[in-house]
Amino acid sequence: VQLVELGGGLVQPGGSLRLSCAASGFPFSSSTMSWARQAPGKGLEWVSGIYSDGSTFYADSVKGRFTISRDNAENTVYLQMNSLKPEDTYVYYCAIGERLCFTSWGQGTQVTVSS
Question: What 8-state DSSP symbol labels residue 31?
Fold first, then answer.
């Protein structure tokens, strides 16, 4: 199993970023995928998930600002993040599973929201 996140970086408050996660080594199209995030020294926070049928679900903290999507032909899951706030500053992880019930996750990508 391999999950490779890309797209993190530094963005100003109110800005946008799009994270991508390239997946391999497992049946991606039939797997529930999630994004989670973690601050240094803190626990993992679930952000969003998408079922194999494309149904999506979000944590209240990001609902209306973040959008998760998937491309089963490319084995890729995305997280479009809009209206970013300083409190969205975390390392973001792509994971197999839903909520915090993950079987695998990637190495993470840093997102920093700061002026």
Answer: S
